[in-house]
Amino acid sequence: MSEVLVICGSLRKNSFNRIVVRTLPELAPAGMKLKDAKPFDTFPFFNADIQAAGGFPAEVQAFAEDIRAADGVLFVSPEYNFSIPGALKNAIDWVSRLPNQPFRGKPVAIQSASTSPVGGARMQYHLRQTMVFVEAVVFTKPEIFIAHAQTKFDEQAGTFNDETGRGLIKKQLEGFAKFIERLGPCE
Ligand SMILES: Cc1cc2nc3c(=O)[nH]c(=O)nc-3n(C[C@H](O)[C@H](O)[C@H](O)COP(=O)(O)O)c2cc1C
Description:
Blueprint: E1 2-8, H1 16-27, E2 32-36, H2 48-54, H3 58-69, E3 72-76, H4 86-96, E4 107-113, H5 121-133, E5 137-138, E6 144-146, E7 153-154, E8 159-160, H6 163-183
Parallel strand pairs: 1-2, 1-3, 3-4, 4-5, 4-6
Antiparallel strand pairs: 7-8
Bound molecules: flavin mononucleotide.
């Protein structure tokens, strides 16, 4: 049994990435429990002066505690301007300054849905780079890039209907479950 914390990089109510997050329980292997991360859109912009004055905001600590407690973390995010959406990057910047930094040794997987033909690939490479600095261990294949996202979702129904994409996500989650098991608990 593993618990995977899911962090959605979009704050948009009818977000394609949020629809993927809602679809994950249908696609996850038996024994994988998925939990939504706490919201990070109320975090102040990271500023070391805030940290020096009063320590870390309570919501940052609570967000980080969920990362620490999880067996793995799954990011599901769009690409903004070829990179990581600002609010998500800000959340990662905050938790990266914590003592007992929560990403250290943590298995991480990434999925992205974006409207371009490469489906958020450039965001994924930047996120992988960031995860290197925080010493996470990032799962590799299969990669999940949901390209031309506007054609793959029923926005009214809030469903992700692309059979190829659903099959790949299933495979990725199965692989990620084995990856978590192989790595064992983070120290
Ligand atoms: C500020 C901004 C920048 C964007 N930059 C990119 C980009 O670099 N590549 C891309 O594929 N889509 C880009 N898009 C389009 C997003 O892929 C699209 O808005 C997508 O629906 C966002 O995901 P969501 O539906 O989960 O919110 C951008 C959108 C915004 C709002």
